[in-house]
Amino acid sequence: MQSELGSVTLPYETRRIDLADGTHRTVLELGEGEPFLLIHGLSGTHAHWGLPFLERLVAAGRRVITVNHVGVAGSSRSREQFSIVDLADAQAAALDALGIDGPVDVFGISMGGMTAQELALRHPGRVRSLVLGCTTAGASAATWMAQSDMAGLVSALQSGDTGQALRASWGINVSRAFAEERQDRFEEFSEATLANRVTLRILSEQMQAIGTHDTVDRLGRIAVPTTVAHGTEDLLLPYPNGLKVAEAVPGATLETFEGAGHLFFWEDPARAAEVALETASRAD
């Protein structure tokens, strides 16, 4: 999939990299400059960052890297249940495979935000600055989505009706107003989703990994410039999660996206990119 926005062309063409453990990952790389690692979330792929957000980081002179999780978009599948820790270790291994030795700026959202937490805690030398978007510390600090929303989403995903599943996924990920007003972005979201479908098995494994995520007692160890970004209309991981993460990370800045849903960086890509770049600048 290709789209030209202004003077920047953003091709969604991945390449394969081999990790030291014998597995491989598919990676999207865009632009040149200092690396910015984007870690996507539940059922997400490299294409789910959205073109307007990616464009702004590339235009700012950054080398954008996003590594597909295990079993996603051509990456190796796991023979056993994986954890968020495993996902974080794989991100560090991918940086090794890409020949990136020093610390990088990291932007993780949702499950990717959980992965980013573990990356910063387990591999502190790898992280230069950190944005934790629409995520949670898990365990006792977590506020999960309403059971009615979960039931509706699962029903749509299991319906066998692709259109229904796409509409349900879109509606749960963005605010109601955005979903109704931005048909163009729904079409981009649909194309990204259909290009590399995540199987129900992988989705189930990701949900199990999320269920055991717990950094509640360790977030105080994060010592890099950190911003917590969260939409007030987030249905998947409601806003109180962001408040708790921001309180737990020393010196963290809280950026509230009023009226935005889970994918706040789709609803306000310009501000999301500004948050990423400003956080990175605090590490200079």
Notes on the structure:
The radius of gyration is 17 Å and the shape is globular. Helix 4 packs antiparallel against helix 5. With 284 residues, it is α/β, with parallel strands linked by helices. Helix 1 links the parallel strand 5 and strand 6. Strands 3-4-6-5-7-8-9-10 form an 8-stranded mixed β-sheet, sandwiched between helices. A two-stranded antiparallel ribbon has the order 1-2. It is 40% helix and 19% strand. It has one domain: Rossmann fold. The chain is built from 11 helices and 10 strands.
Number of helices: 11
Q: State the fourth-level CATH superfamily.
A: Alpha/Beta hydrolase fold, catalytic domain
Oligomeric category: single chain
| Shape type | globular
Which range does the strand content fall in? Answer: 15-25%
| The first-level CATH class name | Alpha Beta
Spans of at least 5 consecutive residues whose pLDDT stays below 50 are 1-10
Portion of residues within helices:
40-55%
The main sheet orders its strands as 3-4-6-5-7-8-9-10
Order of helical and strand elements:
EEEEEHEHEHEHHHHHEHEHH
Number of strands: 10
Whole-number tally of structural domains: 1
CATH fold-type name: Rossmann fold
Radius of gyration: 17 Å
Largest sheet: 8 strands, mixed
- Helix-strand makeup class: alpha/beta
Q: How far apart are the first and last residues' alpha carbons, in Å?
A: 35 Å
Mean pLDDT rating: 93
Supply the CATH architecture. Answer: 3-Layer(aba) Sandwich
